[in-house]
User: Which sequence fits this backbone?
C-alpha cells in the first residue's frame, strides 16, 4: 500500500485526480456562481489533497456571449 500522505513537500505538478476535480469545481462555479471572486478549498475525493479553487472574475465564455 502506498502512503499518499507521506510526502508533504511543495508540489509543482498536480495529480490527475486533482486536476480532474479542479476542472469539475471550476465548471461548477462557472455554471452556478454569479458573484466573483469565488475562493474555495475543496478536498480531492481521491487523494484528499486540499485544492485551492480560485476564480477571480466571471469567466468570459467564448462560445456563448
Ligand atoms: Zn487528487
Assistant:
Amino acid at each position: 500500500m502506498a502512503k499518499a500522505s507521506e510526502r508533504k513537500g511543495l508540489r509543482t505538478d498536480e495529480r490527475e485526480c486533482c486536476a480532474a476535480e479542479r476542472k469539475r469545481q471550476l465548471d461548477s462555479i462557472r455554471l452556478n456562481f454569479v458573484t466573483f471572486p469565488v475562493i474555495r478549498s475543496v478536498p480531492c475525493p481521491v487523494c484528499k489533497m486540499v485544492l485551492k479553487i480560485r476564480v477571480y472574475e466571471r469567466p468570459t465564455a467564448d462560445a456563448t456571449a
Summary: Strands lie at 38-43, 50-55. The first strand starts at residue 38 and ends at 43.
